[in-house]
Structures are given as structure tokens and as C-alpha cells.
From TrEMBL:
Residues 309-651 form the Exocyst complex subunit Exo70 C-terminal domain. This is Exocyst subunit Exo70 family protein. It comes from Thlaspi arvense. It comes from the Eukaryota. Gene3D superfamilies: Exocyst complex component Exo70. Belongs to the EXO70 family.
Length: 659
């Protein structure tokens, strides 16, 4: 049968009302055609419904549109489904609302019949959607109609429960609950479908890049596409992985599922999808995801690189990913009577990633206390220190509180590890006994290590002071403040160096060794955080020690050489003294030219100091020798091997820069 459109609707109209009138005409004609067809094909089709359809066609646009839409859908399922058409027509009245007066009320007569009829109507309509192979949300009209039916079912179930005291209603309540459960299962599937298809509408050139994953499909079609954030450095951003229309669909489903008592199931579907997003995004930051056992077995050099990646990842997670996920949770689960579903969903989304990150930090905290680990562990501690306020804000609800408490506990364990590592430095110094003399009396490796260690550690002065002060408050007065702790370490170092200097047989080299190492200690403690922690008094006292070492070196080495140049002796003694001086001077210069003074300033100071006592004494001695009466003309000059300039040149050859 073909629809005949009157000529007046074929003409071109400029009025804005012509199109709605045309639609109304089509609906009325379609309703008459459908009813007429059913009347002729089914002997069970009463004349009453045919006349009722005429009345409905006269009623109103909304009522007519609704009837035509549902009739068309029923015919699409089964052209001979006269029973469905009867039920659809009986559900529409002149009030304009489908089933508007069919909701059960306590005051209506014949309640059981009306309840059963209304429930049958909803069951037929909803069951048609539940058994569909294709997703309901693939068609916006179907999704809206289905939600309307679900709302009516939930409202009817609420009215039925209000009459639970009536035994005759119990059967209807049971049927309604079973239907609600079937609806909730289907909504759960649809919720997952909407989340899985959401990324398809994104532009791959945006802040996200897509990767297809066909492991998960709906029906006969694969829809899974994973969207992950690119690594970025700007933490003042919010990731919006879902479009507003998708969020609206998810919210509509979530509201019905929570109303139907399936809030946890809805949360489970949501969190599983969002966890996949976070896991994939975390992998883009090149974090290996080591277990605690793997961390313990991995060489420290490899862990240092992993710690750097961990710090970047944890900062991105807590400053960008998690705040964005919280915002998305709030939007998807808005308009709910309670916030528990929102908080539970957010916790489930974040729990896996948070646990993975915290386990790595915990494994580092429980690892070895070797001193060289201090700086990377300190980096971990300070990264968590910066993020603890953010964690407390994000994880403020009761579901997330275990994550918050665990983060705080691991941060504390990192502090304990740092304190233990710092204390281990003392044991390292004690366990470094003198074995053999260090070549040339230069700066010993233990001195370089300890001073560079302390200087680097003091760059995190605030954190170290906090850790030591916190430990002191918890354990009593046994823990020393940072300044006292560092002074104690330096006392141990100086005591260790005192033991090492005894390995030298030459007393002059002993003092030069202490002078070299003491100068290095002083230089590393000047004009920096370490010096400010030690204080000016310590620096002044240490500088005085250096002057003492310098004086002892000069006295033990060059005073003996200069002592040979005695001018009060007779001429033969003068000649013998000069001969002894030349031999001793040559010997000392030859020996000390192999000694090491790395610091250029100290090297020049020592040479100048030596020249300052040797050259004047030598010049005076030569003058005394030349004016001696026993010397006739130039006979004494063959005994004068060096001029003053020669001595100065030899003295400038003392000491090497390095061994």
C-alpha cells in the first residue's frame, strides 16, 4: 500500500509550520494504515481499537508520534505481531502520555488487573531491547526510548514496593525485580560499549594518540581503541579523553544502574576501562613496572635510571592523570544521590597504578644502605614530599584513605632509609683502615669521596634536617642535628687520615699528606651549603690546623737543610758545610719533586715558603764564604755549585700536580 500525498504538500512552502504538519499527516496516515491492515488480517482485532486509533489520531501530536513510533518498531520485529500492537495502542490515552494512567496506585479499582497489564506492557517493550544483538546505544532514538522505559519500570517498582503489604501485589513485585535485574545486566553491557567506542571520535593529531586493540569486541564488531596521553612536561593541564556527549550517555546509564541497585557493577565496568587507559599511558613514560623482588635483584646503576623515570611518571600521574580522572568520575557519576559510587570508582581506577608506583619506592626504601645510594633515594623522598599534599587532596575520601596512608608510610620509610644510609657513611670511614702509603702524599680517595658526598648531600639540606629532626623526636636525643652529624663525620675522617699518615716514613711527607687533605676539606667547605652548616667557627679552626701542618712540614724538611749553612765556622768547616748543603739540597729536591700537591695555590705557597727560608740563608752563607781570609782570589768559587737563581729554579721544580 502506498501513501498518497495531497497536492498541497507537494508544493513548495516558505512557512515554518508546513513541515510539522506534513509529519503529522504522515503519522496519522501510517496509524490508520497499520490499524486497518491488522483489522483485516487478524480476526481477533476488535473494532474498539480501530475506533480508538481514530480517536488517537485526533488527540495530539505527541501522542500520535509515540504511537506511530512504537507500532513501526513492533512491525519491524514481527509483521504479524498483532498482540504487541494491541498492547501498544492500549498503553496510549488521550492524556498524551504513554501509560500515563497505568501506573499502579492504591486507590484504583481492579488494581491487580491494571498492575499486571502495565507490567506486561513494559516487559514486552523492554524485552525487545534486551534480546537485541546490536548495541542499543548505536541508535540515539533507541537509547532514549529504552531509558524512558527503564525509568517507568523503576518508578513502577517503587510504587509496587509501597504496596508490599498487599499479598496480591507480591507476584508483580517479584516480576518487576526480575525484569529490573535483566535491564541492569543489559545496561552494564551498554555502559562498556559506550566507553569502548568513545575514542573513535577523537582526532589523532590532538594531545592524544590512538592505538587499536582488537582483543575486545562487542557482538560481531571490534570497537576497542585505546587512547593514551603523550608524554608531556606541562603539569598544568587536564586530559579530557571522552567527549561531552559520551559522558552524557555514561551518566544517563549510571544514574539508572545506581537507582536499580547496580552501582558497584557500574563502577566495576567504568574502572576497568579507565585502568587500561592509565596503564597504557604509564607505559608511554617508559616505566618498566618492576616488582619488589625485581627491584632488589636489579643492579643499582640500572635502578638509578629507573628512579629518574619513576620521578617523571609519579609527577605526571598525580599532577595530571589522577586529577583528570577525578574530574571525569565527577562528571560521569554526577546527579547521584550519594557520592560513594564516584569515590569507589575513582579509587578502583587509581589503585593499580598507585600500588605499582608505591611498591617501587618501598622496594628502594627497604634495599641496601650503601652510602652511594643516598642521592637517588633522596630524589625519591623529595619527589614524594612534593606530592604528598596532592595525594592527601585526591585521596581524601574513605575509599582512597588506605592509598593515602600507604603513601605517607612509604615516604616515612624512605626517610628512615636516608637516615640509615647517612649513618652508614660513618661505618664506611671506620672500615677504611691504612694499608699502604698513598703515593706522593696527595689527596686520599676517602677524602674526596666523603667531602663530595657531604657537599652533594647538603644540597638537600632541608630534607636532611627534617629527616634527622623527625628521627630525633621519635627516638629521643640519640639522633644528632645535621650540623653536629656532619662535624662528627669530619672528625672521623680526620682521625682516619691521622692513621694513614703514619704509613709514611718521612715525617715531612706525613705533614704534606695532612696539608693536602686538609686543604681539600677546607676548599669543599667554603662558600656553600656545607660551610654554612659547619659554621664560621669550624672553618677558622680548620684553617689554623692547615697553618700548623704547613709549619711542621717546613720545619721537618727544610730547616735541616738550612741548618747546614752556619756562617760562624772556620773556613774548612764552611767548605764542608757547603758540600753537605749541596748534597742535602739535591737529595731533598729530587725526593720532593715526586711528591704531589694537587692544589695550584697550595703548591705555589709551599714553593714560595721554601724559597723564603733557603735562598736568604744560602745568599748569606756565600757572602761569608767569599770574604773569608783563607780564600785567595777565586780559589773558593769552585766549591760554589749553585747561584741563588739556581736554587730558586730547583725549588720551582718541587711537587707534581698529580701522582
Amino acid at each position: 500500500m502506498k501513501l498518497q500525498i495531497p497536492l498541497k504538500y507537494k508544493q513548495k512552502h516558505t512557512s515554518q509550520t508546513c513541515f510539522p504538519r506534513l509529519i503529522l499527516f504522515f503519522c496519522r496516515r501510517l496509524l490508520h494504515i497499520v490499524v486497518s491492515s491488522l483489522f483485516t488480517q487478524s480476526p481477533n482485532f476488535p473494532e474498539y481499537y480501530y475506533s480508538k486509533s481514530n480517536h488517537m489520531a485526533e488527540a495530539g501530536d505527541e501522542n500520535l508520534y509515540a504511537a506511530a513510533r512504537d507500532i513501526a518498531r513492533a512491525l519491524g520485529k514481527d509483521p504479524s505481531a498483532a498482540g504487541d500492537i494491541l498492547q501498544i495502542l492500549s498503553g496510549y490515552g488521550a492524556s498524551g502520555n504513554r501509560g500515563g494512567d497505568s501506573r499502579p496506585t492504591a486507590s484504583r479499582g481492579g488494581a491487580n488487573i491494571n498492575l499486571d497489564r502495565s507490567l506486561n506492557s513494559l516487559e514486552r517493550q523492554i524485552s525487545g531491547y534486551i534480546v537485541e544483538d546490536r548495541p542499543i546505544w548505536s541508535d540515539p532514538v533507541d537509547s532514549r526510548t529504552f531509558l524512558d522505559a527503564v525509568d517507568e519500570l523503576l518508578a513502577m517498582a517503587g510504587d509496587l514496593r509501597s504496596m508490599a503489604g498487599d499479598k496480591s501485589v507480591a507476584v508483580c513485585i517479584s516480576r518487576a525485580d526480575e525484569l529490573i535485574q535483566e535491564v541492569m545486566f543489559r545496561l552494564q553491557e551498554e555502559f562498556g560499549y559506550v566507553m569502548d567506542r568513545a575514542p573513535e571520535s577523537f582526532d589523532s593529531d590532538d594531545e592524544f594518540s590512538g592505538e587499536e586493540d582488537n582483543d575486545r569486541s562487542y557482538g560481531d564488531q571490534s570497537h576497542q581503541v585505546m587512547i593514551t596521553a603523550r608524554p608531556i612536561t606541562d603539569y598544568k593541564i587536564v586530559i579530557e579523553p571522552l567527549q561531552s556527549s559520551v559522558i552524557g550517555d555514561l551518566n544517563a546509564i549510571a544514574v539508572r544502574m545506581v537507582a536499580g541497585g547496580f552501582g558497584k557493577e557500574c563502577s566495576r565496568v567504568y574502572s576497568s576501562r579507565r585502568r587500561e587507559f592509565l596503564e597504557e599511558s604509564l607505559s608511554r613514560l617508559h616505566l618498566r613496572g618492576l616488582s619488589m623482588e625485581e627491584v632488589q635483584e636489579t643492579p643499582w646503576q640500572d635502578l638509578e635510571d629507573e628512579i629518574d623515570r619513576w620521578i617523571k611518571a609519579v609527577t605526571m600521574v598525580f599532577r595530571v592523570f589522577f586529577p583528570s580522572e577525578r574530574l571525569l568520575c565527577d562528571r560521569v557519576f554526577s546527579d547521584l544521590p550519594v557520592s560513594s559510587v564516584t569515590d569507589l570508582s575513582f579509587m578502583e581506577v587509581c589503585r593499580g597504578t598507585t600500588t605499582q608506583l608505591l611498591n617501587f619506592a618501598d622496594a628502594i626504601a627497604l634495599g641496601s644502605r650503601l652510602p652511594e645510594r643516598l642521592f637517588k633515594v633522596m630524589d625519591l623522598y623529595e619527589a614524594m614530599q612534593d606530592l604528598i599534599p596532592k595525594m592527601e587532596t585526591l585521596f581524601s575520601n574513605k575509599y582512597c584513605s588506605p592509598l593515602r596512608h600507604e603513601a605517607v608510610a612509604i615516604h616515612k620509610r624512605l626517610g628512615e632509609a636516608i637516615r640509615g644510609i647517612f649513618m652508614e657513611l660513618e661505618n664506611l670511614i671506620r672500615r677504611d683502615p691504612p694499608k699502604t702509603a698513598f703515593p706522593g702524599g696527595g689527596i686520599h680517595p676517602i677524602t674526596r669521596y666523603v667531602m663530595n658526598y657531604l657537599r652533594a648531600a647538603c644540597k638537600s639540606r632541608q630534607s636532611l634536617e627534617q629527616i634527622l629532626d623527625q628521627a630525633g623526636n621519635e627516638t629521643g636525643s640519640d639522633t644528632r642535628p645535621l650540623s653536629v652529624q656532619i662535624r662528627w663525620v669530619l672528625e672521623l675522617l680526620e682521625s682516619n687520615l691521622e692513621g694513614k699518615k703514619r704509613t709514611y716514613r718521612d715525617p715531612s711527607l706525613c705533614f704534606l699528606f695532612m696539608l693536602n687533605n686538609g686543604k681539600y676539606i677546607l676548599d669543599k667547605s667554603t662558600d656553600n651549603d656545607l660551610g654554612s652548616i659547619l659554621g664560621e667557627d669550624w672553618i677558622v679552626k680548620h684553617a689554623a690546623k692547615l697553618r700548623q701542618y704547613h709549619s711542621s712540614y717546613r720545619r721537618s724538611s727544610w730547616n735541616q737543610v738550612v741548618g747546614l749553612l752556619r756562617t760562624e765556622s772556620p773556613y774548612p768547616k764552611l767548605i764542608e758545610s757547603l758540600r753537605l748543603f749541596n748534597a742535602k739540597f739535591d737529595e731533598v729536591c729530587l725526593t720532593q719533586s715526586q711528591w704531589v700537591v694537587s692544589d695550584e695555590q697550595l703548591r705555589e705557597e709551599l714553593r714560595s715558603s721554601v724559597a723564603g727560608i733557603v735562598c736568604p740563608a744560602y745568599m748569606k752563607f756565600i757572602e761569608r764564604l767569599k770574604v773569608s781570609p783563607e780564600i785567595n782570589g777565586r780559589r773558593g768559587e769552585p766549591f760554589i755549585a749553585y747561584t741563588v737563581e739556581d736554587l730558586e729554579l730547583r725549588i720551582k721544580g718541587l711537587f707534581k700536580e698529580r701522582a
